[in-house]
Design a protein that fits this description.
This protein has twelve helices and 20 strands. The protein has 396 residues and is an alpha/beta fold. Helix 3 crosses helix 12. It has a seven-stranded mixed β-sheet. A five-stranded parallel β-sheet has the order 9-2-1-13-20, with helices on one face. Strands 12-11-10-14 form a four-stranded mixed β-sheet, with no helix packed on it. The protein has two domains: 199 residues, Polyamine Oxidase, Chain A, domain 2 (Alpha-Beta Complex), CATH 3.90.660.10; 155 residues, FAD/NAD(P)-binding domain (3-Layer(bba) Sandwich). The structure holds flavin-adenine dinucleotide.
């Protein structure tokens, strides 16, 4: 059975499956799509700015190729927009990237190791009960087929994937609490400064920071970024983003509720059963909102105000049952994270992506979710862009 047939059968049956294990043991090496082999003509040092999906996959590949590198991260943790909620429920929760928006064999590709025994349970995300909240009414809908090509981790998360399979290989190479504020590429070496005056130096640098960090000129480049690149960066949309998880003592909600008319109106505000397909005993309803309207949750003065806003919305949709059955909650406001500042890139003109991705003097390179030609805005797209940038850096 080919990988494609296997995945097709799983999706048709809609069953939960230990996917990765099966992929790695029942498929031959040839039909798993690993990254191409690249000759590494590079003996210098690379610094990666940012320890999100792009930076971590870039580090993973450099580690495999035995190339000297360091990752410099602004915050106190790795993962960036991939983040976990520790011990909130009886199943693991992703506060950022959660769905696998592509063929799950991407996990094997990101590991880039045909000998890996990684065993990761994947479930198809095929919600059975779906409602739409529109014009003050909750209506049932049958739009399940729209979600058929999406997947989730069953007993881990995107964060858990990096935590278990990627970061342990080079954890000592990540420097935390070190926001880079200057990148000087005038000399033979690239020199970097952090906000405490600390200095770093490398032969090549890979910048993986989110678009708003570039838009705000938080990092001073010397020579300055070309005006064309600045214009391209400023053209990229980056709407507000939030996720919230609320535990209830009763389950009163469907698998999925599109709020504000949801996708049908072009918005992206969903209430979903976070434990769907995960053998969860606790009742956890999650909010995902990334749209031009998301500021109504993210721009309030405190997480408490945001929580009250969400609860009043849920009480309106579900006739007061939210307040009645409430147990506890957790909120992740991505717009207020100082080194993220929103959700993910939205392009009006994909030509801007090519301009953003152009390296500076073959010394400073760029990667991240904004730089994947077909899968921008995703965890795996960010990871693949990190890989692609490493290929350019070490083979040129
Ligand atoms: C609410 C929400 C839900 C999402 N859901 C999904 C989903 O279900 N599935 C999916 O595939 N994707 C999802 N995404 C998108 C996905 O999470 C991102 O596309 C991906 O994680 C981005 O990875 P990255 O490496 O490009 O950037 P990031 O993860 O943002 O990493 C960049 C890193 O750079 C650091 N940094 C910033 N400035 C500096 C500096 N000056 N110096 C040093 N370090 C710096 C940051 O702290 C951060 O760690 C979601 C995103 C959000 C916000």
């Amino acid at each position: 059975m080919t990988r494609k047939d296997f995945i097709k059968n799983i999706a048709t049956l809609g069953i939960a499956t230990p996917f990765m294990a099966s992929l790695l043991t029942s498929c031959t090496k040839e039909n798993i799509e690993f990254f191409e082999e690249v000759p590494a003509n590079f003996n210098g040092k690379i610094i990666i700015v940012g320890a999100g999906a792009a930076g971590l996959i870039a580090g993973h590949i450099l580690q495999q190729k035995n190339i000297d590198f360091q990752i410099i991260e602004a915050s106190s943790i790795y993962g960036g927009r991939v983040k976990k909620a520790a011990d909130f429920a009886d199943f693991p929760i992703d506060l950022g990237g959660e769905w696998i928006h592509t063929n799950p064999s991407i996990l094997a590709k990101l590991l880039n190791d045909s000998t890996s025994q990684a065993d990761i349970d994947i479930i198809p995300y095929n919600p059975k009960t779906i409602s739409v909240w529109k014009d003050g009414k909750l209506r049932k809908r049958n739009v399940a087929s729209h979600f058929y090509s999406e997947y989730k981790f069953k007993s881990t998360t995107w964060y858990g994937f990096f935590e278990k399979h990627i970061v342990p290989n080079f954890s000592e190479k990540i420097i935390y609490n070190s926001p880079i504020t200057e990148i000087d590429y005038t000399g033979d070496k690239v020199t970097l400064k952090n906000n405490q005056g600390g200095n770093f130096s490398a032969d090549k640098v890979l910048v993986t920071v989110p678009v708003p960090i570039l838009q705000s000129n938080y990092i001073q480049f010397n020579p300055p970024l070309p005006s064309e690149k600045i214009a391209a960066v400023n053209n990229i949309g980056f709407p507000d983003g939030i996720k919230a998880f609320i535990e209830f003592s009763e389950r009163f909600y469907p698998d999925l509720t599109f709020a504000d008319g949801g996708l049908i109106n072009g918005g992206d505000t969903l209430y979903y059963d976070a434990g769907f397909g995960k053998d969860a005993k606790s009742n956890v309803l999650a909010l995902f909102s990334v749209s031009e309207e998301t500021g109504k949750y993210t721009n309030l003065e405190s997480d408490t105000a945001t929580f009250e806003k969400i609860m009043s919305e849920l009480d309106e949709i579900f006739d007061g049952q939210a307040t009645k059955y409430y147990k506890k909650h957790i909120i992740q406001n991505w717009s207020k994270e100082p080194f993220i500042r929103g959700s993910y890139s939205h392009y009006d003109n994909y030509g801007d992506m090519d301009i953003l991705g152009e390296p500076l003097d073959n010394k400073v390179f760029f990667a991240g979710e904004a730089l994947h030609p077909t899968d921008s805005s995703t965890v795996h797209g960010a990871g693949e862009s990190g890989y692609d940038a490493v290929v350019s850096m070490i083979s040129g």
